[in-house]
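Let us work through a complete example step by step.
Step 1: write down the sequence.
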Amino acid sequence: MLLSFESWGLMQRRAFALLAAIGIAVTGCATGTDGESTSADESTDAAQVPSASATPEPPAELPRGGREVFPDYRLVGYSGINGDPNKDLGRLTGDLDEVCDEITEVGQAYKKGRKILPVFEMITVLVTASPQEDGKYRIRRPNSEVKKYLRAARRCKGILLMNIQPGQSEFLPELKHYEQFLREPDVGVALDPEWAMDPGQTPGVQLGRTTGPELNKSAEYLAEIVEEENLPEKVMVFHQFNYDTIEKLKGLKEHEGVALVRSIDGLGGPGSKTEVYNILTEGQPKYIHPGFKLFYKEDTSPPYGSRLMTPQEVMALKPRPEYILYE
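Step 2: predict the structure and record it as C-alpha cells.
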C-alpha cells in the first residue's frame, strides 16, 4: 500500500501549498478563458511556407537532432511558472537563460550513455482554488508567456512542455486552446491528473483523477498533429503520485509520433519515493517510458521529506528513468 502518499493529510498539504502560491503566480493574468489572439508579427518562429519553386525543406528535427526522442535522449528539466519570485511552483522562473545553465549542469549526471535534451515544463494552465469566469477552476496563461518560454527553450536547444492543470475543465479542450504551439516541432505537454476535478469537486478539497482512455484522447490528438505537420516525435508526460489519480491505465494506447512518459512524483525522502516508484511502475506497459520527479522544497522538508535524492540514486531506480524533472 502507498500509505505515505495516499494519506489525505499529505494531499491537502501539497494542494494548499500550491494554491497559496497562486496569489503571486497569476498576477497580471487575463481571464480564465484567455481570448488573446496572435498576429503575424507575433509568430512562434515557425518556418515560412516555401514557394512552389523552392527546394522543399527537410522534415523538422528535435532541437538537438533526430526525429525520435528515445532511446537517444534522456530528458532532464525544471518546472515552474512566470512571475514566481519565491519559486513556490518550481525553479523555471526568473532569468530563463540562467535556468538553462542550471539544467545543463544538472543533466551532466544523468547522461549514462545518452544525450541530454533539456526540458522547460511551464505551468500553462494553472488550477485555482475558486471558479473563474467560466466556472472551470483554472487560469490559462497568455500566449505571450508561452512564446517567452518557447524562445528560451529554443536558446537552450531544449523542448517546451506545457503543463496542464485543468480544474473542472478537461485536458483535450486545454490542449486545443494552445494548438498553435503544439504544431511546433519542439513543444509537447505534461498532464496533471491530480488537478483534473469531477463536476462539483473543488481543487485542494478533493483529489482529482483521470483514466487511461481520457489520456488516450490527448495522445491521439497529438499524433494527428504530428502526422499533419510531419513533425518529430512529440512528448506527452502524465504525472502520477498514487493509484487513485489514474484508473484503467492500459486504456492509454501507443501512438506513432508520440513519446508517452509516466512521471512518478510522490513527495518525501529517498526511501518513500523509491517505494512509490517501484510499486507504480510494476507492470507498466513497455511503450510508456518511466519518469521521476524531485522537489527541492517538499522532498527536503519535514514532516515528509528528509533530503533530495542524488542523481546516482535516481539512476539506480529500476526501470531507469528516461525523464527527470525538478520542481
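Step 3: interpret the result. Residues 1-9, 27-43, 45-52 have pLDDT under 50 and may be disordered.
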